[in-house]
Amino acid sequence: MPRATDRPGEGTYKCTNCGQEMTIEKESDQLPPCPSCGNNTFNAA
Predict the structure, then answer these.
(1) What string of H, E and C letters represents the secondary structure of 2-33?
(2) 5, 20, 22, 32: which has the highest count of C-beta atoms within 10 A?
């Protein structure tokens, strides 16, 4: 389960709390906390 500050790789990740989707476009990008609710855990969408 990817967490905020992880570098999970390219793809779309869904917040486990509110369902907000975030897209990571570069392998080197960190996954930020959810912009909607501040949650730190995500699932691959």
Answers:
(1) CECCCCCCCEEEEECCCCCEEEECCCCCCCCC
(2) 22
Tell me which residue range forms the domain holding 25: 11-44
Compute the Cα dihedral for 26, 5, 35, 41 and give only its sign.
Answer: positive
Q: What pTM does this model have?
A: 0.89
User: In this structure, is residue 16 part of a structural domain?
Assistant: yes
Question: pLDDT tens, 1-45?
Answer: 999 999 999 999 999 999 999 999 999 999 999 999 999 999 999
